[in-house]
From TrEMBL:
<dbReference type="GO" id="GO:0006891">
    <property type="term" value="P:intra-Golgi vesicle-mediated transport"/>
</dbReference>
<dbReference type="GO" id="GO:0030126">
    <property type="term" value="C:COPI vesicle coat"/>
</dbReference>
<keyword id="KW-0472">Membrane</keyword>
<keyword id="KW-0813">Transport</keyword>
<protein>
    <recommendedName>
        <fullName>Coatomer subunit zeta</fullName>
    </recommendedName>
</protein>
<dbReference type="Pfam" id="PF01217">
    <property type="entry name" value="Clat_adaptor_s"/>
</dbReference>
<dbReference type="InterPro" id="IPR022775">
    <property type="entry name" value="AP_mu_sigma_su"/>
</dbReference>
<keyword id="KW-0653">Protein transport</keyword>
<keyword id="KW-0968">Cytoplasmic vesicle</keyword>
<dbReference type="GO" id="GO:0006890">
    <property type="term" value="P:retrograde vesicle-mediated transport, Golgi to endoplasmic reticulum"/>
</dbReference>
<keyword id="KW-0333">Golgi apparatus</keyword>
<comment type="similarity">
    <text>Belongs to the adaptor complexes small subunit family.</text>
</comment>
<dbReference type="InterPro" id="IPR039652">
    <property type="entry name" value="Coatomer_zeta"/>
</dbReference>
<comment type="subunit">
    <text>Oligomeric complex that consists of at least the alpha, beta, beta', gamma, delta, epsilon and zeta subunits.</text>
</comment>
<keyword id="KW-0963">Cytoplasm</keyword>
<comment type="function">
    <text>The coatomer is a cytosolic protein complex that binds to dilysine motifs and reversibly associates with Golgi non-clathrin-coated vesicles, which further mediate biosynthetic protein transport from the ER, via the Golgi up to the trans Golgi network. Coatomer complex is required for budding from Golgi membranes, and is essential for the retrograde Golgi-to-ER transport of dilysine-tagged proteins. The zeta subunit may be involved in regulating the coat assembly and, hence, the rate of biosynthetic protein transport due to its association-dissociation properties with the coatomer complex.</text>
</comment>
<feature type="domain" description="AP complex mu/sigma subunit">
    <location>
        <begin position="18"/>
        <end position="156"/>
    </location>
</feature>
Amino acid sequence: MVHTTMEGSLFEPTLYIVKGMCILDNEGNRILAKYYDKNILTTTKEQKSFEKNLFNKTHRANAVIIMLDGLTCVYKSNVDLFFYVMGSSHENELILQSVLNALYESVSILLRRNVEKRVIMENLDSVMLAFDEICDGGVILDSDPTSIVGRAALRTEDVPLGEQTVAQVLQSAKEQLKWSLLK
């Protein structure tokens, strides 16, 4: 897929589709955010200013997409939270929307359909893992909420060796042996 502009110049296809993802509360304050492009929104101050502006433009709107500061932003709100996925101005909105849906559905499954600020704050580690399972450095890794949640749940079960019971250590060893034999 090659994108063109009005001037006719070509944008080379790239795997780096997502510029950032964030979750804001109902006052526009950051709950969690990750930015992947080192050329835009490089400081925390710039990011928070962008987020505040984004929130102000979207918190009363009925749309699901907005162009802001050269970025295509798709968003979804629920109870007291706003979920955002940002891409470049020439990015396919449907791809960004699928990432947004994956993020929202993954969080929803992780939190047992109780998607609200208090519950997210209590389970921030799991939500952060879901972010990492969806996108790495701007490259979309997965958009299937079930597999994202499965991998995020596996990673939250990585208890330090000193805190594991003997049964847990033996089970972990069995799993590792099984996977090494299957390779």
